[in-house]
């Protein structure tokens, strides 16, 4: 199983974004948290900033929209060249229609589930998706503690992906460290978003390598 490490620039220095992107060039995709202060109580940036990130990033963009009215805004992020665009299940009127639109434009389409959102109603949508994001913190802020009680959702999604032989990436986001990543890998995640543990101490390249090694050991042991 391929493991992907996606550093979250929510923990980066926004004033030196180009340098911060270059520091995570050994990762797979850069996770870009778009927050509107409506869907979550925090505000980051919008399409103009993400366009500039796209222009200068050494690796592809994994855009995570924590915004209301995803139907209106999500296609623009696909159009600017993001490799993947993930919206929250509650934020789209018709998640399947929006996922199809994103794929038509050429992006990978993802749905994100907050901790309080049940996975069951979304399992049948998996064939329409390229990735499913199981949040392991309440969306909105970096630096929160990993919620291990989300693992049953992940195991359930992994079960369906394996049974149906789907090429859907299972992503976790929130509180991912070299310790917690092993728990998420054991439960079936293959794509790991990490903000604080990549940027907040030490060297991002070494942190990414440590996360990758820990996840790979468990992803392989698991299957
Ligand atoms: O989506 C997010 C918050 O809503 C962030 O991507 C996530 O929290 C990453 O930060 P950390 O690794 O510090 O938990």
TrEMBL record:
<comment type="similarity">
    <text>Belongs to the ribulose-phosphate 3-epimerase family.</text>
</comment>
<dbReference type="GO" id="GO:0004750">
    <property type="term" value="F:D-ribulose-phosphate 3-epimerase activity"/>
</dbReference>
<keyword id="KW-0464">Manganese</keyword>
<dbReference type="InterPro" id="IPR026019">
    <property type="entry name" value="Ribul_P_3_epim"/>
</dbReference>
<feature type="binding site">
    <location>
        <position position="64"/>
    </location>
    <ligand>
        <name>substrate</name>
    </ligand>
</feature>
<comment type="function">
    <text>Catalyzes the reversible epimerization of D-ribulose 5-phosphate to D-xylulose 5-phosphate.</text>
</comment>
<comment type="pathway">
    <text>Carbohydrate degradation.</text>
</comment>
<dbReference type="InterPro" id="IPR013785">
    <property type="entry name" value="Aldolase_TIM"/>
</dbReference>
<feature type="binding site">
    <location>
        <begin position="173"/>
        <end position="175"/>
    </location>
    <ligand>
        <name>substrate</name>
    </ligand>
</feature>
<keyword id="KW-0170">Cobalt</keyword>
<feature type="binding site">
    <location>
        <position position="64"/>
    </location>
    <ligand>
        <name>a divalent metal cation</name>
    </ligand>
</feature>
<dbReference type="InterPro" id="IPR011060">
    <property type="entry name" value="RibuloseP-bd_barrel"/>
</dbReference>
<dbReference type="GO" id="GO:0019323">
    <property type="term" value="P:pentose catabolic process"/>
</dbReference>
<dbReference type="Pfam" id="PF00834">
    <property type="entry name" value="Ribul_P_3_epim"/>
</dbReference>
<keyword id="KW-0413">Isomerase</keyword>
<feature type="binding site">
    <location>
        <begin position="195"/>
        <end position="196"/>
    </location>
    <ligand>
        <name>substrate</name>
    </ligand>
</feature>
<feature type="binding site">
    <location>
        <position position="175"/>
    </location>
    <ligand>
        <name>substrate</name>
    </ligand>
</feature>
<feature type="binding site">
    <location>
        <position position="31"/>
    </location>
    <ligand>
        <name>a divalent metal cation</name>
    </ligand>
</feature>
<dbReference type="GO" id="GO:0006098">
    <property type="term" value="P:pentose-phosphate shunt"/>
</dbReference>
<feature type="active site" description="Proton acceptor">
    <location>
        <position position="33"/>
    </location>
</feature>
<feature type="binding site">
    <location>
        <position position="173"/>
    </location>
    <ligand>
        <name>a divalent metal cation</name>
    </ligand>
</feature>
<feature type="active site" description="Proton donor">
    <location>
        <position position="173"/>
    </location>
</feature>
<keyword id="KW-0119">Carbohydrate metabolism</keyword>
<feature type="binding site">
    <location>
        <position position="33"/>
    </location>
    <ligand>
        <name>a divalent metal cation</name>
    </ligand>
</feature>
<dbReference type="GO" id="GO:0005737">
    <property type="term" value="C:cytoplasm"/>
</dbReference>
<feature type="binding site">
    <location>
        <position position="8"/>
    </location>
    <ligand>
        <name>substrate</name>
    </ligand>
</feature>
<keyword id="KW-0862">Zinc</keyword>
<keyword id="KW-0479">Metal-binding</keyword>
<dbReference type="GO" id="GO:0046872">
    <property type="term" value="F:metal ion binding"/>
</dbReference>
<feature type="binding site">
    <location>
        <begin position="140"/>
        <end position="143"/>
    </location>
    <ligand>
        <name>substrate</name>
    </ligand>
</feature>
<dbReference type="InterPro" id="IPR000056">
    <property type="entry name" value="Ribul_P_3_epim-like"/>
</dbReference>
<protein>
    <recommendedName>
        <fullName>Ribulose-phosphate 3-epimerase</fullName>
        <ecNumber>5.1.3.1</ecNumber>
    </recommendedName>
</protein>
């Amino acid at each position: 199983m391929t493991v992907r490490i996606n550093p979250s620039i929510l923990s980066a220095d926004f004033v030196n974004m180009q340098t911060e992107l270059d520091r995570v060039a050994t990762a797979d995709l850069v996770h870009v948290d778009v927050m509107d202060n409506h869907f979550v109580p925090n505000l980051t940036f919008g399409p103009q900033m993400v366009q500039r990130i796209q222009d200068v990033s050494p690796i592809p963009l994994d855009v995570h929209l924590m915004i209301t009215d995803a139907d209106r805004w999500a296609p623009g992020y696909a159009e600017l060249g993001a490799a993947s665009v993930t919206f929250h299940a509650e934020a789209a009127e018709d998640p399947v229609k929006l996922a199809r639109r994103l794929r038509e434009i050429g992006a990978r389409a993802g749905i994100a589930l907050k901790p309080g959102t049940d996975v069951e109603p979304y399992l049948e949508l998996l064939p329409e998706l390229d990735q499913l994001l199981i949040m392991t913190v309440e969306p909105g802020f970096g630096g929160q503690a990993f919620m291990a009680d989300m693992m049953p959702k992940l195991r359930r999604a992994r079960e369906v992906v394996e049974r149906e032989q789907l090429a859907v990436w299972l992503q976790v986001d929130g509180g991912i460290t070299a310790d917690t990543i092993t728990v998420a890998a054991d439960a079936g995640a293959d794509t790991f978003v990490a903000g604080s543990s990549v940027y907040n101490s030490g060297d991002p390249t070494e942190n990414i390598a440590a996360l990758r090694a820990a996840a790979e050991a468990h992803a392989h042991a698991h299957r």
